[in-house]
Each structure stands twice: as C-alpha cells, then as structure tokens.
Specification:
Helix content is 43%, strand content 9%. By secondary structure, it is mainly α. It has a three-stranded mixed beta sheet with strand order 1-2-5, with no helix packed on it. This is HD domain-containing protein.
Length: 410
C-alpha cells in the first residue's frame, strides 16, 4: 500500500458528514432567517442524508463505479447516488425501520441533490437545505469538508484548508447559502486543496496501478461471483465490499486462477509497472478522446518485442475544481458582512489573477503489465505523444527507474 492509513470504505466518513451536516444546520438556525425557518425536522433530515449519502458505493469506491462497471453495463447508466436510494429503501423495508415518510423522501432527495437526477423543488422553499450534504450549485458542502481533512490526516500529508472559518461564515440569503465576501479565497482554497489531494493522493501513480490490477482481478472473477449483476439487486449488493479480493484469493476454483494470480501479485508487490504520463494540452481538453492500449500498440515502431493489448494498461485521471472545465467560484453567492440582506456573485477575474483560467487537468498514464515490457511500452507511448500532440512528457524513463533503489518500494 502507498498510504496504509487510508481506506476505501466510507463508514467513518459517513459519521463525519452526519455530524458536520448537523453542525451546519444548527449554525444556520442560530442566525434564523424568518423567511426560511429551520425546524428540528429539517435538521434530522439533513443529518440522515449525511449519514446515508455514500451507502451506495461498491468495493473500492469510485474505482468500482468508473472503471469496473462500465465493462459490463453495455452503456447503461449507474451511479452510487442512485444506488444509495435503492439501498436506503431496502434497509428500511428489510429491517422494518419506523421513520416518517416525508423525512425519508427528503433525505433521499438530498443524497442525489448534486447529480443530474437531483432536481428538486421544496414546497417549503428551503432549497438551501439540499446544498448542505451534496451541493449541486457550487460544490461547497460538508462531504468535502470531512473527506479532505480526514484523508489528509490518514495519509500523513498537510491540508491547507480548514472548514471552521467557512462554517462560521455561512448564512442564508434568498434561499441560498452565502459566505462573506472576504472569505472568497477561503472557498477557493477548498477547491484547490481538493485538486491537490486528487493529484498527489487519489490519483497517485502507484495507487492507480494497483487499482488497475484490482479491476482486472474483479473482471476475471465477475462470472464466478456475479459481481456486476449485484448492482441490480440491493439484497446482493450489500454483501460486496473490499473483502472481495480476499474471497477471490482463497477460492480454489480453477476458473479463478487468473484472478487469484493477480491478487497474489498485489500482495507480493509484483505490480503493473508505471511507464510514463503526460498532461493533455489545454487546447485539446474539450475534444480529448480516451487513449487505449491499441493506440499505444499502433505507435510502436521497430522493437524486439511485439506488444499486445493485454500487455498494456492505461489510466486517465481527471482533476478539476468539482465542475469540470467551469469555475465553481462563479456560482458562489456572497454577502458584504454578517448584517447584509443582499447577496451577489463576483467575476473570478475581479478577485485574483492567481485563480486559474483553466480549471481542469487530464493526466494519461501508461503501465506495462510485465516488467520486461516497460521499455517497449514507454517508447511506444512516447511515439504516440509525439504523433498526436507533437510533444513528449519529461518524466520517469525506464532507464532512470532501473537505477533508482529504495529501501521501501513506494
């Protein structure tokens, strides 16, 4: 493991979001806007949404949703938010939980509030309540507050963002959660910290290499375990967690040999070898087409090795400020001070020239599945970059990697 203190599971995180959602609701009620009064029912609903917002995640979190499932869904859509709704209904029915139907309905709406399916019209006019856990308007929510602090501590890295100042600055104006104008750059720090965590932690080259191996193992074990089919049945889905790799490892059925061997390679640190990476030029971001192993193979020139698709793994990491190529700060509502009754937005260019004009990165990484193929794959990938973009990345080369010796192989 690269970061042994970090986990994919969401239990502790869900408790944290539950707590912070309640804290925000209580703070907003303390400065009670008569037009949008916050009742005890509202606070209970927001906390419930925080507790359950990630219950629809599969094993290995986003890796399962974005890399494994698309191989089997034949273009059908699936999201952990929608699965969370199915799981909530299943749990309530299965365990005969006595809960007000309206509370459950609103909590489920809050869970999907940031997705394209999350359009909601509250008859009470309290739209801001739907932005506390999963904010579809500008991305400032307690979900990020919790996981940025929690993950940075678990991974032993610093975190420049502290949510306390923002929580103290929150107030409701015009059914929007607003912040003091002087805290504008504090909000930007939330987004920049998230981007940095994605760059250095969540999409770490070694981490992504292990995730690719886990996806390959799950793919080879899918028929034996019915992994992809489980997403259609909450009664089966709840049984899926990160222990699926252990179940593969100890299952001696002959048809699982390839999957079992991959899990053993992960245990033994016989990993897919990182060859190189490049950032997609900004002028190509809007029209970028995913790079495939076939693209790399077609770029191979003279070599003693003939590469095949199964020799190469490609990972594309998208890093942004939560809104793709758009800047979420443009959707942020501000007030002049605590006593203001009006809210407003500020164009990014009027705040600071340090705020980026381009709000998205795409990093393409290529791996060789066998150590002896690193040089051939690296050269083919370099040819692909030169042919496609006219430039090549200046990063780790196979020769440099061979000469690099480490006491701990992180």
């Amino acid at each position: 493991m690269v970061y042994p203190g970090a986990v994919h599971t969401r239990f502790e995180h869900s408790l944290g979001v539950y707590h912070l959602a309640g804290e925000v609701a209580y703070r907003l009620r303390a400065q009670q806007d008569p037009e949008f009064p916050i009742e005890d029912f509202d606070i209970k609903t927001v906390k419930l949404a925080g507790l359950l917002h990630d219950i629809g995640h599969g094993p290995f979190s986003h890796t399962f949703e974005r890399q494994f499932l698309p191989l089997f869904l034949n273009g059908a859509s699936w999201s952990h938010e929608d699965m969370s709704i199915s799981m909530i209904d299943y749990i309530v029915d299965k365990h005969h939980i006595d809960i007000e139907p309206e509370c459950l309905k609103k909590a489920k709406e809050m869970v999907v509030a940031s997705t394209e399916h999350g359009s909601h019209n509250s008859p009470t006019g309290k739209q801001f309540l739907y932005d506390i856990v999963a904010n579809g308007r500008n991305g400032v929510d307690v979900d990020k507050f919790d996981y940025l602090i929690r993950d940075s501590r678990a991974c032993g890295v610093g975190c420049g963002f502290m949510f306390g100042r923002l929580m103290g600055s929150m107030r409701v104006l015009g059914d929007e959660i607003c912040y003091r104008a002087k805290d504008y750059l504090t909000v930007y720090n939330l987004f920049s910290t998230r981007a940095e965590m994605h760059r250095t932690i969540y999409t770490h080259a070694k981490v992504k290499g292990i995730e690719l191996m886990a996806v390959d193992a799950l793919t080879k074990a899918n028929e034996a375990f019915g992994i992809a089919d489980a997403v259609q049945n909450p009664g089966e889905f709840w049984k899926l967690d990160d222990t699926i790799l252990k179940r593969i490892e100890v299952d001696e059925r002959p048809e699982l040999k390839e999957a079992r061997d991959l899990v053993l390679r992960i245990r033994r640190r016989d990993l897919y070898q990182f060859c190189n990476e490049f950032a997609v030029p900004k002028e190509n971001l809007d029209h970028f087409k995913d790079v495939t192993p076939q693209d790399i193979i077609c770029s191979q020139r003279s070599s003693d090795v003939t590469l095949k698709e199964e020799d190469i793994a490609v990972s594309t990491a998208k890093i942004d400020l939560t809104r793709g190529s758009s800047n979420p700060l443009e959707s942020l509502f501000l007030s002049q001070d605590y006593d203001s009754t009006d809210s407003f937005t500020i164009p990014v260019e009027r705040i600071s020239h340090l705020v980026p004009a381009v709000c998205q990165d795409k990093i393409v990484r290529v791996y060789a599945k066998k150590p002896e193929l690193v040089e051939a794959v690296s050269q083919a990938f370099e040819n692909f970059q030169m042919t496609t973009y006219g430039v090549k990345a200046i990063l780790a080369t196979p020769e440099k990697k061979k000469n690099r010796k480490r006491l701990f192989p992180y």
